[in-house]
Amino acid sequence: MAAMTPTPAPTAPDTGGSAPDTGAAPTGLTEQVRAPRRRPRPRIWRGAVLLLAGAYFLVPLLASFVFTVHVPGQGIGFEAYTQLLAADGFTESMLLSLGLAAATIATSLLLAVPALVAVRLGSPRLRPVVEVMCMLPLVVPPIALVTGITTVLRWGPDHLSRTPLYQTFLAVQDERFPVVLVLAYTVLALPFVYRSLDAGLRAIDVPTLVEAARSCGASWPYVVLRVLLPNLRASLAGAAFLTLALVLGEFTIASLLGFRPFAVWIVTISGAHARMSVAVSILSLLITWLLLLVLSRAGTNPATVSSAPSTSPTSRKEP
């Protein structure tokens, strides 16, 4: 009872018959409590770093652009850009690279998404094994990979010429759309796809989402397509982002296998048309940036609807 009894606040002695002003705090205490507001200092270092980074990327591009439009003794001309569409092999190589990129993105996602979801739901102990397998392409050099692919392609027709698989070996090497490049690029893209999807799966509660959807009668395809994939939108866009950049810039494997995608075509014409090759490189950078912006926009779509039901705070009643 003594602890519950309010203690009266001490009062100052009456000096002149007037009531003391208890609402005003002492001046010294007010100055100590109210710290003076400091104006935010301009973040000079951040601006300097951004300026240096922008100069590091933009100055070479600007120098390349000047090289393509400035002809010594003739002034400024845009012939290097106007002759691109009429250049031999430009359209075919560009469409081939975009087709290979789309096929590689689809193949890598179809392989990685079900495997990672199955490991996370059914066998979490296998996650280190899957991680090591997906990270192996970072250890194996591309030159060793293409040497193994070349050996297999040469070995197949000699030993399987009398079997139906002989036509398969010929089909995967079709110059119009080399499937062997899609398989090779899928292997190279596995580390990036795995890291992106693994980060997305760690950010959501996969077992709870799957259990809730299955308890409502949803099938496994519906669970993957309508419950998990919308929550992995950013991770899928990141995986496609990295795979697209990898395929459009890959040169070693395609060149050694004898195919001619966009990167190989640029190197091929660089000896005879130096300005046109630089112009094509700048154009390829712009196209790649545009496609990457589209993919990043798809990964941050504001229309994404969460699969978890939202609860209004006003609907909860306090006991």
Note the topology.
Layout: H1 27-33, H2 44-69, E1 70-71, E2 75-76, H3 79-82, H4 90-122, H5 127-139, H6 142-159, H7 165-171, H8 179-203, H9 206-215, H10 220-231, H11 233-249, H12 252-257, H13 262-269, H14 274-299
Antiparallel strand pairs: 1-2
Helix pairs in contact: 2-14, 4-8, 4-11, 5-8, 8-11, 9-10, 11-14
What's the average pLDDT?
Answer: 78
Q: What is the number of beta strands? A: 2
Report how far the terminal alpha carbons are from each other: 28 Å
Summarize the main sheet: 2 strands, antiparallel
Helix content: 55-70%
* Count of alpha and pi helical runs: 14
Radius of gyration, Cα only, in angstroms? 32 Å
Structural class: mainly alpha
SSE order, one letter for each helix or strand: HHEEHHHHHHHHHHHH
Strand order of the largest sheet: 1-2
Strand content: under 5%
Question: Could you name the ranges where pLDDT drops below 50 across 5 or more consecutive residues?
Answer: 1-5, 12-21, 303-319
Overview of the structural elements:
By secondary structure, this protein is mainly α. It has 14 helices and 2 strands. Strands 1-2 form a two-stranded antiparallel sheet. A hairpin with a 3-residue loop joins strand 1 and strand 2. The longest helix has 33 residues. It is globular and about 75 Å long. The N terminus and C terminus are likely disordered.
Summarize, please:
The protein is mainly alpha-helical and 319 residues long. The chain is built from 14 helices and 2 strands.
